[in-house]
Amino acid sequence: MDSAAPYLTHRADETAASQVLGLITSLVNAADWLYDHWYLLALAVAVPWGVGETVVRRLAARASAERMALELVPNRHFAPNLEEIFRRGVQLARASTAMPWWAPRRAKAVQIRLRADGSAPLRYRIEGPAGGERLLSITPFGPDVTVNRARPIVDESRTHTVRAEFILRGKLTSPLREVPLSPDPLQPLVDAVADLRAELGDLAEIRLDIQRAPKWALRARRLQLMGAARRSERREAQRAARWLRQDASGIEDSLGWQLQQLLTDKPGSGSGRRLVMPPVPRRVEPAEALGKLAEDDHLVRVQLLVMCASNTEGRAQARLAQLQAAFDVFGGRSRWAMRGWQLGPWRIGADHWPTKRGFERRWNLGHCQPPRANWVRLEELTGLLKPPTVNCRLPVLAGDLPTFAFGEPQLLLQGIYRGPDGRERLVATYAEETLFEVGVGKAGGGKTERALAQAIGWGHAGGGLIFVDPHRDSWPRAIPFLAHDHLMPRIALVDLNGLGPNPRVSSWNPLGMHHGQAAHEVVEAITDAYASALAWDDATAPRALTILTAALTVLVAINEAACQAGRPEDQATIFHVRALITDAAFRKAALAAVAGRLDEETRAWWQSVFPTLPPDAFAVVLNPIARLAANPITRAFLGQPVGVYNIRAAMDSKMIVWVCPGGNGPTDRLLTALLARDLLRAARSRRDTPEEKRVPFRPYFDELITLTGAAPETIASMFEDLRKYRCHIHGMTQLLSRLPTPVRLSLVQNASTLATTAGSKSAIAPITAEWGDNPSPDRVATMERFEHYVSMNVRGRRVGPVQLRGPHLDDIFAAQARPQQVPALERAALANAQALPLDQLTDQAAKQLGRVAAFLRARSPAGAATVHLSKEKEFG
What was the pLDDT predicted at 777? Predict the structure, then answer.
């Protein structure tokens, strides 16, 4: 047995060796077979992967088909705080998981779409699982953001398209830069698309997909980072030890060290070398090594895709470069960078094989397959989790403010807008939305020039208007651009300035009934005009109001009878109030002639109350009329029986009427008050016309301070009421605070357009206060001449305040200037107003009382007193 043991041991060793050799041979043969048949191994791996990928893609596509879309529209006061934005981010992360259990992870994401296509500066949409709609519809932003269910967007094909995917580069555990909320973090992105031109097919869209971080992937990432940190620490320790040993060896081999050892008297001090202790690797702290990945809370994976397109070569590439620069704002130790490789002038990225197809699949289906590096915390995405705020300066696009087109009746010129790219365009508002307009600014600032440009453009487009200018400067400025043959029949000039030796003057009888006015409306309009100009009311001047109303009632009845008798040339004028009050014979004949037209109360007043009034009670009524009669221009203008001026007919026939009252004295204020009240009466009389048939008409009031000084309540009523009758007021003034309180309140309350030029801060402050002092009075006060800040209504929402340059007639209407036809236009405008020489009108006015007296004699019953007044007694 003892002799057999070595033999058995030897045999066992040989068997084991042969087995090992056989195993090695088998492995070599297997490796050789696999090398020869590698395609079988690749096929065995590729088939299961391909089948699995196909199944996952089909499931993901099916899940993506059930997505919903919401559009968030902020108002101009939207100013969220960090907590509200963070809560919105939590909502988005939670909503990303609102998918069926079978949905692949790539479909479990919420997408933020920032889109600029010319319809808005930057549209903000949220797309995600249909199950998350209720969660996302109620935002922590409150009423400052409107959430609307959005329809799918279908884009037309563009000629040039570029794509890019952004990944985080730099130190991946470090957060992105903390961008403050003021100015808005979206401002760089808005600026990058500010010069987008929809007519060229420009389009830019950013899609940020947010996906909750999977636990297993996070743990694997942490293990990888911790391992890398430990290896890095060991390398650092080894490097430090190596440098320490080299330093020690260098010191001991140096001449100084050897001399020191020779000079020392200590035995054995020079023998041997120092013992160098290598540094111990520092303990790796997880919080330091993992950075933002150390905590699980509010950690998400993101996918950032960008696409730019245009029909013009080069614009899409330039837009992508602008957006890339905009994302640099968020960069710190970690930053956004385009994924791909740069090879000289060429870049291989999302626009090229093999990544282009995957990009388009993710883009079209909303799938989120982020790179391994794209881990962020919600706090890093603060700037992208909300729509643009009040701190974001938004550009004005053609879709926000239409471009003015000459001759287009739906548009009303507002000014010249200079875009972010330096291009200028004439901008306009829609005429049907521009109900009332107010322009404020210092003298010479350009507010009248802007109003003239608007009025001229409106007139050329076929619109009717009246331009009331007490100083007349606007008429010679405008006529070169109105001197067109097709406009001349529509233009009328009522000039009461009396220029020249024998000026031509139009005529108006406020009491005239030949235009078919309602008698009570005429009486009310004139009485209210007197009361407004003279500050009468029921408390301070009740007797004067009563006397004037009674006298006007009789005179209007006379005129009504004259028109019905076919003798409109025998109508009384406002100057016959004096004869009716002071001449007993005229009064008796007048009352007898129209007795059947007066109501019982009016007849009783003339019979019972009038005889008891003392003579001095009539002075307050007669003095203003005497002042009108003393001025030859107003005497000629108001003293004609059949007045030509008829503002209601001008409204309905789209006339362009220029009225120059002639000054701002007491007499001029009374005349202005009469004209303003007649305009209000005429506009209100349009209630006899169906609303859809009322022709739009635009009164322009230059120097509102002068006009409202004469008729404050009338002007205030215009701003309150005339919108219903499609009569839209445009007013200009130097100082809003100088206007009467009723006018100022009505004007600001109802203004569709507010505009201001530069001026003193105290003058501008009431306008900027309406804008929330954005821009501030300091900023507006330092604007250049002819610059305006304007807020407008467009498509039911307010645009601005936007800085515009006031239009200059010589620039924007240079093609319409016809200076050689100015004399022809002046003749036509006076002819359309049937203006006659002053001396001729004065003579007719002087004879009118005799004509009225003759008419009354013919209509008086038998036995009535004979009426006879000389010319001298008429105006006394």
Answer: 86
